[in-house]
Specification:
Layout (H helix, E strand, L loop, with lengths): L1 E8 L11 E10 L4 E8 L24 E12 L2 E8 L12 E3 L5 E8 L5 E16 L2 E18 L3 E11 L14 E4 L4 E4 L1 E14 L2 E12 L6
Antiparallel strand pairs: 1-2, 2-3, 3-4, 4-5, 5-7, 6-8, 7-8, 8-9, 9-10, 10-13, 11-12, 13-14
Length: 232
Amino acid sequence: SVRAYIEYDLNASNNGSLGVKLRHAYGRWYAAQGTLTAGQTWSTMMDISILPEGLTEPTVSGAIFQRQPVISWVQRIGMGFSYMAALEDPSSNDVFSDQPSLGKTSVPDLVLGARYEPSEVWHLQLAGISRRIELSTNNRDYAESGYGFALTGGVKLFEHDRLVFSYVYGEGLGRYLLGIPSTAGGAVDTTTNTAALRENSGGMISYKHQWSQTMRSTAMAGQARAKPLEWQ
């Protein structure tokens, strides 16, 4: 079967004014072997099932959260295991520079992951990313290799309660990680004409408790960090 989906809102500027923002626009092919997705949607690095409930999109630090163009393949291989592979938007605009810069897009971000979900009670997921961050500024080209991984999981406690967690680490994660500026993946020092990626890390934990059929609450805590470079 084939599905096409589009979703947008009127909160492009997030300042109270109306502006169209495209959220999702993708096609999806469901086959016996797996699922192929192409278009703009959630990054394959994400674990959607651990995001805590909220009135708006999640803002807890330490979780992977990104929508962008992707081409992904997800396949179940039995015994609760599945794997995922994707090529994603290679934008290098998540590196800080005090001079006008141009992010190049010669090599897409590569995401590989595996998930173990033997039942509805608990699951674990490990996803990794490899990036080639390239940009041109001050009449000079820079290129660095970034990477990262995200270990996530969740467990159902009692009848309706649920505990979830996330741990993220890498260099040059930038826009993928909630809680740090989107340009914190790296930096360009135009005084010495050098560039380097920053160590990015984070973690979060969330607990949802069901008080009754009509009332529930969620407590969460998270932290994210972009380690400064020596010259920062």
